[in-house]
């Protein structure tokens, strides 16, 4: 097997890793935002139920939830494709963590601004959408970067449900070439490159929406 | 008929009456100051009057209509009452201009151009038009308060509420903001102002409503109040005047 073949196989795996990371990160953002908004707008009962859900999701090992979704659900007649199974496990768990990041960021919004918006006649939903969420997202950047990095680092679990992501490809290559050190070092570098790519994208968005004197360390 | 009539307003928290049967009127074009010791219910009163806090009992008539009745249009009530807060409460993620146009566009459904014209008119009145693109973090306390006043005025309210408008400012900025509020007073803007600032009260109040322990203790012109030989009022003013 030539160097080019090895490289092509690893890059194909990297493509899957990116697909899994972005699908799960998007799920996590949607779930995190959904939970944070429902907690804000729903009553005490909704909030208590969501707190319990977040508590459970944060305590369940990701691999266990993945196996429940992928291997368990077919037992009751629900077949879940591998990528969707990753989104429903890694995406959901990360969403639970993100909802906590968002909760902290919402608490950092000045209550005076919320009161001013309500006093002008904005509804609770409008106040959330126009005043609280835009500020919350800016306050959440460090926590979001952490969580998205975690999603990337948990993506190798996808090989257990048959997705040929980069770690799975590397394992197969090592089995045939016996060049473990070079191949695993190479995928380490590729993971790092993906991490830098993610970070640069977040920094770009952060810079685009930066406001002088707002949420600066 | 008074613009705002407050009748026997009561607000209780856990059995404790913060407002205990407050009644007074505010005529159109009148400026009234609400004063009283800390914890007398001043801020609660303002928040009840625009329904940020639901009163326990009593009636509030705005233009003769009871706004506390079930089914009253809360949004319509609030859009007719401008509210300026102690700590300015500008939206930190928005420019000065966006702070003023937000409610015009979203609540009054004005076009972008229309809203900006209206906002710039009010910002100009408050001498803040040149800061239209600045963000609140770059403004001084006095400048922030002027933007907050422009934001409230832009909605063309029937009455303007001020909740301790000068207490978060240093003496120089107090003078600056007091001058502007005085200008509004001279322009016949209807004002209800909660303040501890005797200077501001002397300048802008036709009458003072003096609250003590949730009740209207006295209502009179400020100079008459200062001349009263009354221990509660004396203690509050600390022999000033």
- Helix and strand string of chain A, N-terminal first? HHHHHHHHH
* Alpha carbon gap, first and last residue of chain A: 51 Å
Structural class of the helices, strands and pairings of chain A? mainly alpha
Q: So what's the overall shape of chain A?
A: flat
Mean pLDDT over all positions of chain B: 90
Summed up, the domain count of chain B is: 1
Tell me the fraction of residues in β-strands of chain B, as a range: 15-25%
Work out the radius of gyration of chain A.
21 Å
Interface with most residues: A-B, 22 and 27 residues
SSE order of chain B, as H and E?
EEEHEEHEHHHEHEHEEHH
Question: Largest sheet of chain A, if any?
Answer: none
Outline type of chain B = globular
Gap between N and C termini of chain B, in Å? 33 Å
Tally of DSSP β-strands of chain A: 0
- CATH superfamily placement of chain B: P-loop containing nucleotide triphosphate hydrolases
> Residue share in helices of chain B?
25-40%
- Share of β-strand residues of chain A: under 5%
CATH architect. name of chain B: 3-Layer(aba) Sandwich
Structural class of chain B: alpha/beta
Counted up, domains of chain A total 1
């Amino acid at each position: 097997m030539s160097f080019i073949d090895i490289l092509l196989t690893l890059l194909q795996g990297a493509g899957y890793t990116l697909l899994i990371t972005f699908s799960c990160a998007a799920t996590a953002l949607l779930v995190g935002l959904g939970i944070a908004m429902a907690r804000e707008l729903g009553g005490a009962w909704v909030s208590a139920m969501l707190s319990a859900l977040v508590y459970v999701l944060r305590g369940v090992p990701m691999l266990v939830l993945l196996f429940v979704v992928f291997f368990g659900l077919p037992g009751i007649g629900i077949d879940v494709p591998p990528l969707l199974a990753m989104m429903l496990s890694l995406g959901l768990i990360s969403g639970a963590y993100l909802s906590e990041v968002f909760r902290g960021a919402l608490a950092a919004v000045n209550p005076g601004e919320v009161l001013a918006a309500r006093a002008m006649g904005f509804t609770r939903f409008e106040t959330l959408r126009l005043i609280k969420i835009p500020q919350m997202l800016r306050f959440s950047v460090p926590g979001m970067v952490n969580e998205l990095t975690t999603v990337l680092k948990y993506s190798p679990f996808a090989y257990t449900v048959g997705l040929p992501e980069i770690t799975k490809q590397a394992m197969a290559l090592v089995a045939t070439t016996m060049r473990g050190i070079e191949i695993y070092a190479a995928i380490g570098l590729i993971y790092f490159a993906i991490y830098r790519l993610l970070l640069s994208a977040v920094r770009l968005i952060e810079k685009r929406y930066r406001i002088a004197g707002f949420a600066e360390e | 008929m008074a613009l705002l009539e407050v009748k026997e307003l009561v607000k209780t928290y856990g059995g404790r009456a913060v407002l205990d049967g407050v009644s007074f009127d505010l005529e159109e074009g009148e400026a009234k100051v609400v004063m009283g010791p800390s914890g007398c219910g001043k801020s609660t009163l303002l928040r009840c009057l625009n329904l940020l806090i639901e009163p326990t009992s009593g009636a509030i008539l705005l233009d003769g209509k009871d706004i506390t009745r079930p089914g009253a249009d809360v949004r319509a009530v609030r859009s007719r009452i401008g509210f300026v807060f102690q700590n300015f409460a500008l939206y930190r993620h928005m420019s000065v201009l966006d702070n003023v146009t937000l409610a015009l566009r979203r609540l009054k459904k004005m076009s972008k151009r229309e809203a900006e014209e209206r906002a710039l008119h009010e910002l100009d009145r408050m001498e803040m038009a040149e800061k239209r693109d600045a963000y609140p973090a770059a403004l001084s306390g006095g400048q922030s308060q002027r933007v907050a006043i422009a934001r409230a005025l832009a909605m063309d309210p029937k009455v303007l509420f001020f909740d301790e408008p000068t207490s978060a400012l240093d003496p120089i900025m107090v003078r600056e903001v007091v001058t502007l509020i005085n200008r509004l007073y001279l322009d016949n803007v209807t004002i209800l102002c909660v303040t501890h600032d005797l200077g501001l009260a002397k300048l802008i109040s036709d009458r003072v409503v003096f609250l003590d322990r949730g009740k209207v203790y006295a209502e009179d012109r400020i100079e008459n109040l200062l001349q009263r030989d009354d221990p509660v009022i004396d203690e509050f003013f600390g022999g000033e005047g």
